[in-house]
Amino acid sequence: MGLLYNIHVSNKDVAVNETDKMTADWIDKPDLVEYYEEMETSTKIAFDNYIR
User: What pLDDT tens digit does each residue of the chain (52 aa) get?
Assistant: First the structure.
């Protein structure tokens, strides 16, 4: 079981607090397909059914 969150933000001025553990970057929906092969199975399912 998993959860998919759809969050709308007013601007892209969001930062990661734990920079020693993770990084983040904004990616436009059309560009997500470039990362498809690196995605986990659950992420691929969400991508295939929600984003594509």
Answer: 778 888 888 888 888 999 999 998 888 889 999 999 999 999 999 999 998 8
- For the chain, what are the domain ranges? 23-52
52, 16, 37, 34: CA torsion to nearest 10: 60
User: What is the predicted pLDDT for the residue at 47?
Assistant: 94
Q: What's the distance, Cα to Cα, between the start and end of the chain in Å? A: 21
User: In one letter, which amino acid is 16?
Assistant: V
Residue by residue, what is the 3-state secondary structure of the chain? CCCCCCCCCCCCCCCCCCCCCCCCCCCCHHHHHHHHHHCCHHHHHHHHHHHC
